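Homework help board

Subject: predicted structure for assignment chain

Our instructor gave us this sequence and asked us to write out the predicted structure in token form, then describe one feature. I got the tokens but I'm not sure how to describe them. Can anyone check?
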Amino acid sequence: MALTQVKTNAIADDAVTTDKLANAINTERTANTAKVSLEDNAVTLAKMAGGTDGQIITYDASGDPVAVGPGTDGQVLTSTGAGSPPAFEDLPTSGPTLTGSTNNTVCTVTGANAIAGEANLTFDGTKLVVKDSDNSGNQLWIVGRANGNSSSLSFRNNADDAYVSRLETDSTSGLKFEVGGSERLRIGANGTVMVGGTLQAGANGGLNAESTSSGSITAPLCLINQGTADGSGVVISHRGKDDAGNQEDYNYIRMVAGDTGSGSEDGYITFWTANGGSLGERVRIQPAGGISFNGDSAAANALNDYEEGTWSPGMHRSSSGTSSMAYNYQYGRYTKIGDFVYVQFDLDVSSWSGGGGSFRVSGLPFPPSVSSAGAGYGAPQFRASSFLGSDFNTSQHSSWITDTAGGAIYPMYFNSSGGDVYVSSPESSGRVTGYATYFTNS
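My token output:
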């Protein structure tokens, strides 16, 4: 029987050397004998010839088996490229090295085959610290994509939560601060600072504090001094350079806590301007209201009221009033500056009847403060006063102001004997016009 296949038990132990490991065993005994082939899995480790400890069998460029190794301690098996078997080689002596590393420093690649620990960049698992050792600035850069896309820095409670606050910037909108998903502050590309909104940025520039609380008053801008002593305050200042390049204060507004006592707090505001190179107080708003000027802080000297308006003058009798008084017209105007009152009046009586006593012009807009100690009773002036009679119109007047019945003007004149005479028997109709000045406590 012809031998056509060699089985494991037909191969002697250690008989298969690397020379015998061809791509295929395909020998012929004679030209007429059948081919002999190895059975699959016939070559076991026991059939392999002995070799050197640490060698690895591989194939060379011709496809023939070849033993590689053994290497030396510390070498690694590396590829030598196509056309040659791998080889054991030493690790490169010029590989990446680590320098400057201390606890929690973050390492960066500083050049070819170089790694360094950054002393100014540390992370301890909780906080990331970026320091600036030489005060050159630029500690942290956040760079956006090209083509005008924005860069942002978000703060979140958890990685998957929506951001709590965010800082966003681009070349067009400037720097935006968002809290709770809404923009709260923006520094525009042109230097404008906007708080609460951006609608008026283009119109006003500078600092804009904006609110949209319709029907209510908000405080979008607060200047706070937490000092508790009298005289604590804040200043809004206008500073600039003079033509010599010196920084100077030109104007400012001082807001001062005059009294910080609990329950008795008061404050005042002063306005200052520069004049001839020196700043000085020009106007003060007093705690109780009123305006004083040029550094005068006395409340008694403050201008505390200014008012303009109209009033309706009338004629009344001193003892029992007037039972009937008809007018063609009644006009009056006044100006009140502090406690000083100026009035004009013009009325035309069409008819009257009844009553007793002297006549007076009544209905003054403010009650007079008149007395001898208060510098007298004024000196009203009359012009066209046909109603008061010819004696009044042809004589020197001695009219005065009384605080009776809310305030009135008594027409008086001197008779031929030099005595004061009230008007008690006027004409049946006619005009009364004139003006007067007086003081009031109102």
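Reply (TA_rk): Your tokens look well-formed. For the description, you could write something like this. Confidence is low (pLDDT under 50) at residues 23-33. That's the kind of observation they're looking for.
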